[in-house]
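Incident log, support desk, overnight shift.

02:14 A customer reports that sequence design results differ from what the structure should imply. Their input is reproduced verbatim below. On-call engineer (initials T.W.) acknowledged and began investigating.
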């Protein structure tokens, strides 16, 4: 029987690029006169950073694990690994990195908002909510308000959820992810003249100026808004547009696969697969693959 991972309850948050968290100033998070071990760690980081920039997070994570195995307290690697694991939704792996950063560099600007988010995703609300409140107290981080809004929504505290989602949207009005969550749980749209709908309609009319990976979200927001107004025909039209935009995003990924997929393709060559073909299990007994619909049974059958 195949097992599938539970889908996230909320749209993925806007995660900051790990490269943005790594300063080029050696006085920021490294010593002015680095030792040989630090120079070695810096050399490995120099290999990892281009992989992060290219989107090869798994490759960068492999180097990050190597660095932390040798130098567990190397802050730049901890920062990079925390962001990578957050991007990959590996919250159980991100949290130990955040805890280590807290003990070594507690003044990191995004520490408490991102650590609190990871805690909430792991259902550690008693730790996560105070952590997010601390992030708000330190620098009123909109992402912390966003994460708190999600947390309170899960706990059924609608008023608190709406409050924090509204603040996140007001602080970053052009952030489409904040807007999407705000529309779903934080806003009370009364009519089609609502400024939020007008803003989204303007974005939709100039959709080519919106980054490709965010176009489907613009249409999805309009779908949500018109559903709330009970104008279901318009909502359905925008749902179709959102689906088409998402299909285009997937086609782009398929035609220009990320470096991770390219490396897999380069490794598993035809010659290698032919060489490994006789290595399978010698049994000729039947294998029954059972699972719920859309859970990956066909893919598993093809792999076998």
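02:41 Re-run completed on a clean worker. Output:
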């Amino acid at each position: 029987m195949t097992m599938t991972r539970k889908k996230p309850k909320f749209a993925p948050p806007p995660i900051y690029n790990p490269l943005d968290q790594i300063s080029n100033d050696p006085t920021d998070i490294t010593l002015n006169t680095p030792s040989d071990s630090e120079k070695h760690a810096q050399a490995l980081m120099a290999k990892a950073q281009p992989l992060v920039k290219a989107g090869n997070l798994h490759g960068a994570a492999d180097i990050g694990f190597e660095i932390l195995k040798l130098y567990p307290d190397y802050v730049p690697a901890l920062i990079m690994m925390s962001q990578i694991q957050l991007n990959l939704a590996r919250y159980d792996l991100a949290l130990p990195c955040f805890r280590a950063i807290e003990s070594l560099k507690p003044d990191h600007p995004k520490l408490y908002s991102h650590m609190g988010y990871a805690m909430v995703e792991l259902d550690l609300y008693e730790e996560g909510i105070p952590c997010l409140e601390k992030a708000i107290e330190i620098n009123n981080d909109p992402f912390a308000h966003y994460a708190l809004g999600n947390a309170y929504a899960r706990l059924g505290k609608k008023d608190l959820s709406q409050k924090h989602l509204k603040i996140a949207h007001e602080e970053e009005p052009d952030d489409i992810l904040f807007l999407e969550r705000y529309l779903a749980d934080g806003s009370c749209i009364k009519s089609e003249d609502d400024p939020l709908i007008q803003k989204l309609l303007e974005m939709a009319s100039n959709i080519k100026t919106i980054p490709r990976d965010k176009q489907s979200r613009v249409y999805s927001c309009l779908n949500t808004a018109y559903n709330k107004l009970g104008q279901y025909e318009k909502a359905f039209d925008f749902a179709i547009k959102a689906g088409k935009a998402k299909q285009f995003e997937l086609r782009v990924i398929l035609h220009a696969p990320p470096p991770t997929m390219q490396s897999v393709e380069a490794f598993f060559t035809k010659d290698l697969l032919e060489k490994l073909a006789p290595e399978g299990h010698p049994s000729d007994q039947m294998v029954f693959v059972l699972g719920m619909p859309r859970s990956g049974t066909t893919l598993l059958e093809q792999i076998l």
